[in-house]
Amino acid sequence: MAASSDRQSNSSGYGALPVPRLDATLQALIGAGRVFSLQQPLTAEMPQWAVQPAYNLTTVLTHDESSAMMARPATGSFERIEHSGHSGTHIDALCHVGSWHDDQSYVHGDIPARDIQSATGYRQLGAEHFPPILVRGILLDVAAAKGLPCLPDLYEITADDLRQCEQRQGVSVTPGSAVLLRTGFAQYWRTDQARYMSAGAGSGAEAARYLAEQGCVVTGADTANYEVLAFPALPAHVILLYEHGIPIVENLNLEELAVAAVHEFLFITLPIAFTGSTGSTVHPIAIA
């Protein structure tokens, strides 16, 4: 069942993402209307890369303090929140990963990165350009397809793995779809953060290219890096973000969806318009 996919060109749209439109095809994906949250919580203790600023929430005004300045009985409170655009469940913008050639880095659309970057963010391709994302979503539970609760450490998902999932689950990657890959590594989010950050299974370059060729418009996984950890190389990121304009969602929580054996759904995620940012916190949901 394919979603409507009115794609915009790179010059007028945002990579592979379609113009948002809730049409009859998408509405038909909703059965009982069960809503699954696919977000991991943002906390100071969550796993993240050492180079990223830690999540920090500081109360700026308490209810007691506000009572001296507000008309009673009303009181109020607010806080300051600091974190990386790539903390917790987030989506990679198209300026996040580029490709080096001709003595400089280019981002999606072969835009020279140095021409659009500044100390206050990117003048093009930043997170503020994301449209609301409403597309057909499918879960490819690679771990379950192999009869495992979790894939082995540093397992590289292949195109054959994805095809086997499609056949086993009775779903297909079709043009305009979001494809979410379950490795099982979400179980380590709280219990073994070192393993979560350093041993994640994930897509290899072959699988990423397969998704692009099938018309996937956004993809994600239940890991910190989406692709199998291959630092300092990021071949799947280059294929998806730079070559095809396909955004990547990382640190998804796909466990409830997997337990319910829901493999096709309406996928909705709303990136926050952080101007010039290379990524955005998101709260993706699946409705089935």
Short note summarizing the structure:
By secondary structure, the protein is an alpha+beta fold.
Layout: helices, strands, pairs:
Elements: H1 24-27, E1 35-37, E2 56-61, H2 63-66, E3 78-82, E4 90-92, E5 99-101, E6 104-107, E7 111-112, H3 113-116, E8 117-118, E9 121-122, E10 133-141, H4 142-145, E11 156-157, H5 159-169, E12 177-182, H6 188-191, H7 193-198, E13 202-203, H8 205-214, E14 218-221, H9 235-243, E15 248-250, H10 255-259, E16 264-269, E17 279-281, E18 285-287
Parallel strand pairs: 10-12, 11-13, 12-14, 14-15
Antiparallel strand pairs: 1-18, 2-3, 4-15, 4-17, 5-6, 6-7, 8-9, 10-16, 16-18
Helix pairs in contact: 5-8, 8-9
Low-confidence stretches: 1-12
Q: Find the count of extended strands (DSSP E, 2+ residues).
A: 18
Q: What is the overall silhouette?
A: globular
Strand content: 15-25%
Count of helical regions:
10
Ends: how far apart? 14 Å
CATH top level of the largest domain?
Answer: Alpha Beta
Rg on CA atoms, Å: 20 Å
CATH architecture name of the largest domain: 3-Layer(bba) Sandwich
Largest sheet: 9 strands, mixed
Mean pLDDT: 94
What is the spatial order of strands in the main beta sheet? 1-18-16-10-12-14-15-4-17
* Succession of helices and strands: HEEHEEEEEHEEEHEHEHHEHEHEHEEE
**Helical content band:** 10-25%
